[in-house]
Amino acid sequence: MEKPELMAWRKAERKRLVAAREALDTRILEHYRRKIDATLERSFPGLARAKLAFCWPIKGEYDARHLARTLRERGALTALPVVIAPGSPLIFREWHPGVELANGVMDIPYPKDSAEVVPDAVLLPMNGWDEKGYRLGYGGGFFDRTLAALAKKPVVIGVTYELAKMPTIHPQAWDIPVDWVVTERGVYRRDPEGLSYLGTPLEGEPSAMSSPVCYAGEFYKD
To answer: What value does the mean pLDDT of the chain take?
Structure first.
């Protein structure tokens, strides 16, 4: 697929997927949010010791603010992305209630002048996601550019819904896949051959997801 054709196709797919997500009833979105929160807590306990970046939710995206509050209470430091300039990598600044926000690109709030943070992990919303772990975003390329520029790549957990799954986004050289995908269904791990579905941990039994638990623990040691 040539670049102009690819960009037009991605734009149409993005519009379709965002519309499908926004059409969901608020009660369904809240149900999905609670399921994703629970899966992230049980599968990635190391997040409670992480410098964690997440995104302010827009257009019916998974709302990570509830989980971020829980993780801060356990010791995590949370941050939001900041657009510095078009074509430049993002930076991340610490955020918690009380930090002053301003409206940025797409009217998404960002911290005005809090401390810059280099995250250990990122919860990254996805308009679409494919069988190889590639993400369809909003077309600005900010996160791919940022991940490529960081000296140490954080663990990237894509957070999304099953309805956004695609066979492929037709990834290009600049596209960077996520390490994990978490939906209302459960956890997917990216392996060399593509995503592997690992299931959902049972209440009180984090060992049911031993691979994500061990993986997260390795990355978030003090």
So the answer is: 91
